[in-house]
Amino acid sequence: QVQLVESGGGLVQPGGSLRLSCVLSGRAFTLYSMGWFRQSPGKAREFVAALAYGDSAAGGGEIQYAEAVKGRFTVSRDNAKSTVFLSMDKLKPEDTAVYYCAASRSNVRLMTDAMYAYWGQGTQVTVSL
To answer: Which of 43, 55, 114, 117 is the most buried (most CB within 10 A)?
Structure first.
């Protein structure tokens, strides 16, 4: 059974940075595309970023970002550590949310939460003075 554990959330001032981590255990990390989603109070869960499994030289490894975070957030993975990262810069108050990582055996339609079978417990990110 796949388990995902996020860490790295916290309180940061506007314009600041945070890096979220998510460790996958229970299965081979390289078999999974990894996504980040977020949910604010009273709002639906929304896509943030995704990184498809596979090697870019073989047509895999595609990265996608939501328009709201392009140029500010960076998703990456360390296969040796079974970890996916979300580096967040120039944070804004509207980035405040619980951030979830998720794992999918698909490498298409990764902006859709229904494509993910496994979810972490979430980590709170608060951007405020």
So the answer is: 117
Closest CA to 88 of 31, 29, 36, 23: 36
The amino acid at residue 64 is Q
Predicted confidence (pLDDT) per residue in 41-82, tens digit: 999 999 999 999 987 666 678 999 999 999 999 999 999 999
Distances (CA, A) of 106 to 52, 80, 121, 124: 8, 21, 21, 27
* Cα separation, 51 vs 45, whole angstroms: 18
Geometric angle at alpha carbon 63, from 92 and 89, rounded to 5°: 20
Candidates 42, 22, 46; CA nearest to 32 is 22
Say how many CA atoms lie within 13 Å of 54 toward its Cβ: 15
SS (H, E, C) 13-64: CCCCCEEEEEEEECCCHHHCEEEEEEECCCCCCEEEEEECCCCHHHCCCCEE
